[in-house]
Protein 1
Amino acid sequence: MERRKIGCPQVRKWLSEYLDGAMRAEQVQAVEAHLEGCPQCREELASLSEAVFLLRSLPGAALPRSFTLSSEMVLATPATSRWAWGLAAAMASLALAFFLAGDLAGFLPQGTVALPTPSPAPTEAGLRTLEAAPKVGESLEGTTAAGAVGGWPLTQIELALGSLLLLLLAGMAFSLWRRRLRKPA
Amino acid sequence: MSHGPKRMNNEAELIRRSQEGDLESFNLLVEAYQAPVYNLALRMLGRADVAEDAAQEAFIRAFRALKKFHGGSFRAWLFSIAANACKDELRRRGRRPVSLETLEEEDALPEPASSPAESPEEVALSRELHRAVARGLGQMPEEQRLAVILRDIQGLSYEEIAQATGTALGTVKSRLLRGRLYLRDYLLRQRELLPEQYRLKDRGRS
């Protein structure tokens, strides 16, 4: 088998691997053939070899303390995971309570959000239904003009907050359930 | 640290139980790996107190991330987490060269665990040399430092280093070469400060 002749740049690139014995047999032969005739590369290998030897003989530091984990360390999860759930749920509850109270006690005016375009003209039947509808339950389309603009779409808000609260409570329950599963045996 | 077959079976079982949330089993793994992990952190960060924080953080993250371990070298996986904890710590500290901090605190590097019977002079000389090596490591570019520590101090294989650093084999070889050359050059520049017998031979160099 003919041996490939390699030059100094190639050998120097391979010196580290050569030291680690991480080369194929043909590569090793090519490197050693080159080293036989090249004092500069032999020198390079020797100094690199010494640096590696010094690294390997660096004493290991004694362990300063134990790094075993306590359950507190592991359960002290980042803020977002734990009390943020509770905080968000509390805020949603407060907001919901506020709007419910305002709705029932009457200090929040009922009405829809102001519509930029005029609502389509209701049909005959539609008008009669609108007039018959109780004041508390409120329609989604534009109602009577009197006192409508600038009020609060209370039912929508209450529904939205209620759903949000339910979602948050479900999220909290799920995250607690998962944590229970991971508790140490 | 050698792992006989019996220990390997135990380790696989410990990992499995830890993945199910068993903290006691995980702590047995911690006890097996805490010395190398701490040493990795110490050589990466240069200060004992900072290395302690990084090592503790590494084990906490490892426990939380266990589900993502799918086999292969557990040691390499653990070192990858430790390396990331060290890098985060380096970023936190604004990438100050590690060696500067080591020089400020003479006692930052803890004394070796045990020394063989040597004369006081020999002990002092080798301590000086070790300090030089540690300083050289500290000034080395981060990625090269990590590769050199994993190979020449922790004894990982090339494949394990590739796993621990998330890079290709070619990158590992390149970083190892450059890191070792860096240290060689650093020590050659320092040679005026080192005692005669510890100097790197530089025949033929100007």
Protein 2
Amino acid sequence: MKTHWNILVVDDEEIMRESLAAWLREDGFAVDTATCGKEGVDRAREKEYAICFIDLKMPGGVDGIETMMEIKKIQPEASVIIVTAYATVDTAITAMKEGAQEYIVKPCNPEEISLLVSRIIKVKNLQRENSILRKKLLKQYSFCDIISKNAKMLDIFTLIREISSLRSTVLIQGESGTGKELIARAIHYSGERAHKPFIGVSCAALAESLLESELFGHEKGSFTGASSQKKGKFELADGGTIFLDEIGDISPKVQIDLLRVLQERTLYRVGGTEQINVDVRIIAATNKDLEAAVRDRTFRDDLFYRLNVINIHIPPLRERGEDIPLLAHHFIEHLSHELGKEIIDISEGALKRLLNHNWPGNVRELENAVERAMVTSKSRVLAEEDFAFVNHTPEREAWAVPPQLTMEEIENRVITTTLHRTHGNIKEAATILGIDRSTLYDRLKRYNLPRNQ
Amino acid sequence: MNALSLIALGDIAPTTMAALADALWKVYDLDIRTLAPLPAPAYAFDAQRNQYSSARILAKLITAIPAGPARVLAVTDRDLFIPMLSFVFGHAQFNGRVALISLARLSQEYYQRPEQPELSMARAIKEAVHEIGHTFGLTHCPNARCPMSLSNTIFQVDGKTEELCKSCSILLEETLLKANHRTLLQTEKRL
């Protein structure tokens, strides 16, 4: 392991420099030497050093402390050992204040220096191992840019692999910021349509007429401002995938148009008469409760069933606390390149604060929080204070009982919702509800509820 | 060509030199010769430290010893140092020609104990094997029983055996094979 680490010895005295270098080489290290501070800094520009032995007093204008400060600017990770023949408390304090890891007075006992070097290398090996393991872990828990070790999310990854090459419509449900588009992209890019277009449309962002034109295109002169013919997103996505985000916000008119595309795989441009065939996989997403919208008759049930062929429900971040440290580390690594800030880790205290937060904005909110902390942080490790703006939120909002409900109706709704959340898993639902499985079967029978929700 | 030559710096008992030669032959299986002694290294004395600079002695030996022997081990009874450290048991040119050991801190007398000549000899052999190992490019071995392990104290020297561990033996064999191969190539070129 030692040969992986380079050591730099900076000393103007040849015999001192070369004898220490030789001694370290015998110990298996790759050692470079420099005869003055300036040369030492130049060496540090060319190669990464685990340890730099720097003599305190050197002629030529750049002394040991200045050399150390310059090297630290280039390689903040390097451990600097200041070497001197004359120990004074003042210089020792200055050296340590400016970032020296150790301050040694020559000649020193061979045992002392061996211990010092092996202690530093041990820490460096652990840091390297930690970073390798973290990367491996991240790889193990990531799928097409989605990072999670939550059991439900891992099930979703498996499902994505299974369905990626099918043409079946997918409905992704999840709160805002849970990564619905990332899931949609993962389905597209891990399937046979990967080399064809992936077109995303935010249905809530456009007015009804504009959305129609955006989705299906229009003929020249079909409405004021339609100065030329335009292909819609469905045509552009031909052979590939169209991602309809916020599908719960579309108007009844667009719902009918969409239903036709889903049923017949054909469309008409706005103002057009020509039937256009399209081969498009539809992935829709919403943060709304579409079943409730169907019950309220604001969303067509036939469209809902057409969309809901494969259902993916992304759990909110507060239900997958195990992902918070994983995601925080991922964002730190990713953003440190983007922001040009060398932040390498996050403290235990800071993670605790993140774990105590409710994350109503989910993964997107976490990413923004990490970015904000990184921008304002003065240290290389994000501390709890850097996340002072993340307020502790109560675990759950108070539940308001809908008016005029009987006990039976409440029980019915609680069971239905829980079963929906567990995707019909009776055992899991019974555990959540704190009742026996037999009791749950009993209630299902009593309320005439289907087992598969 | 003599592969390994021993040389005493000052007054070193011929029996010590003979025992070292015998031990090194057993470990390194090289042709071994003892050269005529050189005077004690007064030129390397540092009055401030009351010790002898091993680096200065090595530098002098590199120029003083005629071409011929592939490796040279010098033996002194003077206490050695390098500027960074309070003492060294020995010093070698890493992957080079010359190595040096000091007998000063290997005797029990140094530690105010009754002298044990056999123990001192055993320590000298281990240090000689260690420093010659460095000239063949062997680095410190993590196995504390191997003579190539780092010894900063006399207890660590005593914990070693005189024989190279399996992995250091293999590394040495590889180095010697490469060296022989190079010599063969050079001979072929000359022919």
Protein 3
Amino acid sequence: MIRMVDVFKEYSNGVKALKGVSFELNAGEFAFLVGPSGSGKSTIISLLVGEIAPTDGLVIVNGQDMDNIKMRKMPYLRRTIGTIFQNFRLIEYKSVYENVAFAMRVIGAANRDIRQRVPYVLELVGLEYKAKSKPDELSGGEQQRVAIARALVNNPKLIIADEPTGNLDPARSLEILLLLKKINELGTTVLVVTHEKPLVDQFSQRVIAIDGGRIVSDAMDRYYNYESQ
Amino acid sequence: MKVNRNRSFYYIREGISSIFAHGLMSFASICIIVAFLIIMGSFIMLALNINALIGVLESENIILAYVHESLSESDARALEPRIRAIHNISSATFISREEAMQSFARRFSDSNMFEDIDVTIFRHRYAIYVEDVSQIVQTQETLRNIRELGNINANHAIAQTLVSVRNVVTWISVIIIAVLLVISLFIMQNTIKLATYERREEIALMKMVGATNAFIRWPFIIEGFILGMTGSILAYAAVRGLYELAASNMFLFEGGFFSLITFSTSISIPIFLLFIGIGFAVGVGGSVIALNRYLKV
């Protein structure tokens, strides 16, 4: 699903964000990618969604080598990845229904399929009764659930959540992670990027820790292992 | 096929709804197109009127060709077909010696002073109008080949001045219109850039969920097309309305120097097409160029 082998990334301003990162995430897995600000988490996300290319090393996502992918094929690869952002990235002037349907329209889905699928995912995230609301009428937790519904609607193989609870209070944060866990149990591979230790500690899941551009810990544990090393 | 129809419908719907969703930017874009096209249209009409005025002055610039004194009136009149056959001559009017003297006498308040003057001191003559005043010297030389004609007078200085003025006005018009065009394209592109910048998050999101560049571009192209066309049509209506209002007021002074040319189809159609072309180029071209930088991800 995800395979990174000895990946280096140096930006044009000379910043070395990644210094030989290697890890794998197999189909059906759920993992946290944790680390402090500036550790390289965002660079990994950007590499996985094809926003940037590695300076050296191998990045494979859903079977596609990200360094050799043709630009015209990139949209089709991105359709196999559902991405969730810290700031939700909802389109303000569209309703909840249209924000979710938008991801299906983008790939040219037929209206009949959209009418069937969107209510299903809205029900899955518990927002079927808010379909006609605009994003600014929703709480932060509800907005993030809309973003999750949008990420799910095209039935992606992989979901990458970039600090999905960064703008939420602890109770809403837990709700969102439980929802992502539920989605994982339905068969979707999930990678959650976060720096919120207390939240990670509530789950007994694989935790990949990165610091200073290097993987410092990768274990099935409920704690930040690398902090105690 | 069904999917394509769905998509076309989606592009059009998105393009139109986006105009209203970003109402302020849409309004600003249309205002800028209208403002610049009104300035450009006004200048075009000014240039056309100056050109028409010079044309009137040119048409009044005549060559006077005097017939040799030995020729009778009938022989002098017989020269007319030979004169008219010369290239660049639009018309030639015969003026007999009697008509010449009467015309001369009219310039003086005391007509009695001409009573004892023999009409034969005046010559028969032709008032000759040319098509192209810049070729007046060549036309004068050709007229000299007609041996029955004596002096052939033409005011070269006035002719040359008119030609120079026309050339200067033409060049200034072309340069100012070109500069206005470049400025309007630049400002419009920046307006569209600003509008696109405001929506960069939306574009980034579309890229992230797997939209192709064509899918992202089409609603923007349709939006730019509608804004450009709306601006062009409003500007055309404004230029035409304002010009006709100005022309009707100038009519009050028709007895004065000159009246404005009419907004005939030979003027209105090219101006309408020019405005539509600029609206299309600015709306659609500006959208495509401004969008490109956000699609390279």
Protein 4
Amino acid sequence: MEDGCANRGLPMFKKFMLPALSSAALIAGAGAAFAECEAPIKVGVLHSLSGTMAISETTLKDTMLMLVEAQNAKGGLLGCELEAVVVDPASDWPLFAEKARELLTVHEVDVIFGNWTSVSRKSVLPVIEELNGLLFYPVQYEGEESSRNVFYTGAAPNQQAIPAVDYFLEELGVEKFALLGTDYVYPRTTNNILEAYLQDNGIAAEDIFVNYTPFGQSDWATIVSDVVALGADGKSVGVISTINGDANIGFYKELAAQGVSAEDIPVVAFSVGEEELSGLDTSNLVGHLAAWNYFMSADTEENASFIDEWHAFIGDDARVTNDPMEAHYIGFNMWVQAVEEIGTTDVDAVIDAMPGQTFPNLTGSTAEMLPNHHLTKPVLIGEILEDGQFDIISQTEPVAGDAWTDFLPESAVLESDWVDLKCGMYNTETETCVQLTSNY
Amino acid sequence: MNKTLLASNRSVLIFLLVLAIFTVAVTLMAQATGFGLISTSFVKTLGKTLCLCIIAIAMDVVWGYCGILSLGHFAFFGIGGYAVGMWLMYARTEEIVAASLANQPLPATAQEVSDAIGTQIFGVVGSSELPALWMFAHSLPLQLLAVLIVPGLLALVFGWLAFRSRVTGVYLSILTQAMTLALSLYLFQNDSGLRGNNGLSGLQNIPGVSAGQDWVSVWFFWASALALALAYILFAFVTSGKMGSVIRAIRDDESRVRFLGYHVETYKLFVFTLTAMVAGVAGALYYPQAGIINPAEIAPIASIYLAVWVAIGGRGRLYGAVIGATFVSLLSSWFTGGGAPAINLGFYKIVWTDWWLVLLGFSFVAVTLFFPQGIGGLFDYVAVKRNANYGPDDGSWRAEEGKPE
Amino acid sequence: MFRALLLACALTVSAVCASAQDLQSVLQEDPALYNKPSRGTTADAVEALLASGAYDVATFLERWQGKEVWQHDDGRFVYVTDSDPYTLIDIDTGEEIGTADKGELTQIKPNAGVRGVIGSALVRFQLSDPDPARRIAALDAINRDGSAEHLEPLAASLEGETDPDIAARKERLLSLLTARFGDTTEARVEAINSLAEGVSLDSRAALNQILTTRSSVAAEVPEGTNVARIRKVDDTFTVDAAYAELASAGLAPTTVSDADVKSALTAHIVDGEVAGVPVAQMNDPAARIRAYQSLVDAGQAAPFVPPADREAAVKAHIFFDAYVEPDAAVTDAAYAAMRDVDLKVSAMQTADIALDAVSLASIYFLAAIGLAITFGVMGVINMAHGEFIMMGAYTGYVVQQVIPDYTVSIIVALPLAFCVTFAAGVAMERLVIRHLYKRPLETLLATFGISIALQQIAKNIFGTQARPLTSPGWLDGALVFNDVVSISYIRIAIFVLALIFLALILFVLKRTRLGLEVRAVTQNPGMAASMGINPDRINMLTFGLGSGIAGIAGVAIGLYAKVTSEMGADYIVQSFMTVVVGGVGNVWGTLAGASLIGFLQKGIEWFNPSNTLAAQTYMILFIIIFIQFRPKGIVALKGRAAGN
């Protein structure tokens, strides 16, 4: 903890400039006396509170505040009070890099929890690596990346997309796939991986229909008709949707309007959770699917108390919980555990202490941090219910997250291991470390 | 030449002096070169603001002086950023790839190196081919040339088509907006070969430079300040003298200038293209400081904000554009950064992160309605009037004539 | 086995253990088959149940399918009624056997695939069920996953069918099944010919399944193969591709790839050189090939296959597609039927695209029609037009919160949205735009300021999450002409709404006093004023009218898409382009513009269905170029009315 919020005696000017630079909404402690500690431990929260991504990310900011508050109520960390430093990168990708730098150099936070979109993560990566920060990233993503300074608490493709496709192949007997996505990196990469995986599993290239639409697409009539028409050769059709955000509303409305039932053409979505469904009338969508590592309907005691705590914190019993919230819950608690174990928040020490940490997740199994900085996660598949919740119909044992997918030839030879190999991009064929920093 | 220019435009001298003092002050306060009073991220913010000032001046020339309300200048800014970003990404990746391939038993062929670079850069967006667009990416001089040429060429073709068909006023604004929308939609596609929505990232890492970001930020700050000074002088030159008079005359009454025998289209095309090229340079300096460029940067809204800055700063005066860009962008980051204290009204708490845009929107209406001269207009009250007001709605007198008092 | 049964009996406390074949004991033989069912195992599980001869297996299957079977912690399978504490019901006897808390029970949730298998097994029980709903469920199951076994029960059930609709469906399904699984060639061909009539998805599916082919290659076509076509080696099917196929079929040696060369060279590095070529030179592909050739000569690597050899090998083989179906008569009939159907389908698809285009055009028209008045007629640039659309949509949302009945709420919301945005428009005109009539470019900026302010205010009030605006039940679903051509009712409603507004605005502008005054004021305000018209009042009303229509458009757009604070921004640029392309100052122009853009976008989408973004990009490019050549739009005003 040789960190210092103990300001290094910088003169007045910095104090004067600080408010101009800072975007800190500082959260008061829980009132306990933290006498042993001269400065609080700072937890940076880097989630957009305005702009297009505020929809999803504000909830995560609140989750972090709740977790910090709960930890302070338990007596803080290492006898110190935790202090959440919240900044608003405003869904503006370059601003993410700027705010990350600000968190690390001006506020000197010990750890950052943040980001949602992949592009924002790619924007932040060089800064985090340059300044040796620590980032916990809570959202399912496309993989093909490994950074020493980042812990990926969301799902890698093999923890969400691949099992969902397996479910389509084995349980639903789907023979023809429509991969519909919003045109950005997560759907593109995920669909690439899935195309390769499906072809490995004997699905012909012409039986895979891929379509990309812009963010916020609302005219879905033609695309849904195209998908329905896929069934003309008698093969059963399934839709893998990586459609993001608002566009889902128009898409599901069109599905309902064209009477596409889950029995005829099942749709499995990777970006639609409880939060997104609250903007929809789900009575026509019953039976369509989503794959996540957590559903609010998970029937465990941990989940029940998490939901209660969330409702109490946010003051609204109608608010839902979702998968990235669980990721933050696991990530934060693992970090606390690691810090307590080694007695310091020093970034290098924490990075070394993180792999091997275990923490019970909210769905009844245990999450373990792996040497590749990914978690083990169970894969849950849920069917949409009338009330906007999911009925969990399939739950696997925890699956180890894989940074580099095995289904694309370029990345099949790559491996990430920060414990033994000390490399995030290790080529197992040539047995060399391709690069130490991550690709961005 | 320059002497007469400076002599007739005292504001240029004053501006350059202020800019120089500011640059020295920031240098002295920066972490690498001075006493470390301001953080590296703030130096970057200031450097970026200077780049925004450059494009704001360009916008002022094209709108405030020439009367073309272009809602597409950020497209040129973005192209400049992309052009330099391609080299930055390519060169950085080449270093990594070379280091990695050096470990294999056989030395790599040129084809293997280029394949590996393609995989590195485009692996992120699920592809591995290096598109034809990147054929010059290995060469810094060629890409720097592209910073000037591509925006210039686009502006030339677009402007030639538009001005030739006498598309003017609001129509032209909408058309320029359509242009930037089309470009951003095109770049949003993965197939465009510029990594789609992800854009080019990690641009702050300059290949071959081992110095830390504290140094890099100062270098770029200096470069931006220099570019701003040069742009200011260039545009002061363009907007003064006889050519300046013609340009302003076009703004005030295009048909009359045409009847007087001037080739209006050529003048407009010249201004449009020149400002586009300067915008490209500004973008090339801006994005290495921002670290990432992606298509959202050139969405139509960005160009509208540009017009907002110029209007708030004061059209028809170059320093007005600088003031507007600096004032609004810094104020905006102060408000959205949560720096402004929340106001508690008792029944409702105004949090500025939420209400800043509302304030900006309405203050903009107020400026248009009540202060068409913008903030720059305030200087008219303090400055000694040496010659006439050449701002919008006030005719287009030449400096020699002066306004009949 | 016997012990397991005993155990099962012991476990089933109250079950009647009289017969070893009761349901509970069959289930207990392998509970995992039933409480964690998977599609692969369910068919066997169902067979086991049916084979056991236990009483009322059908009821159990139905409830299993409907997620109504629960398992008690002690292993018993039960039905339940009530909720917490649940009353347990024995699955064999149907009697109540006590209660249990939620914690002791696990609901069994078969997934959709398992439910499908169960449904397919249930067919034989349901086909002649007195309840029509069950018969329809059985037909649905056959429709989804028909198999040869269904043929006989289906044919048998046809006789006693009373409901004519169901009977017709049964007959249709019967011919589908006969076409695929019929006993005799004659019966199948007859069934296939009957399928050539329509364009329905299931008949095409049946035909395509009969026509399934497999690609293969051989020195000559084997005896008895039902060949679909011979693949000629030409530009599309290249020699390389053909040779690759030969190699993968094991009929020719594989070619040596660059990667093979590399790995062979790597494996033979000796003292910094490979076969006499120094490693340092290996960055040259020619040097690599030279070194590899030396390895080949030394017998240490597989030889290259020269192009001439490859061509000869390809020539020596026949590449062909063969039908999986051996009966040539059947495939011929199916092929002929399919050709007829395909022709009809492509005609239908064109019709469907045209319908979609009309629908898209009507949405653009509806979004732009307000602008056609404020911008087109008055010449005022209103960048906040999109936000008026958003205000209308939010009005609809708020009304739905107050009035739960969707039909009533829509009827209330439409005029209310008009009033709200009319008021907003009038206020904006009086406070801002009136002062800027002489400075159109500044109107653009001022209204843009209002636009971002309104957007943010909406965010502050309603949050950033999309809000539901649900259409009434009678607008759910689609008008289905056949399996290819259909259009959702909500889009038809939007189309009708657009037509109504077109008529309304034409009427107002051309046939009323207000319209006359509007036209007078826009053409020459000074002259109009001297004729006793109050231009201020007219401008205010006109602007209000345009804004009010935007509000109604907002409700309509919210119904079919989404309600967010940013929805207006999605339409604003598009709307301006619609008006500009169509021609300013003319409502017909806006209609023409919307149609052009709608059809164009759908047309481009049709050519490149996998990339909607490209369609939008090219459409905008087209518009930019179009305006260069026709700056006044499609319907250009002539003479004085054109102004400057």
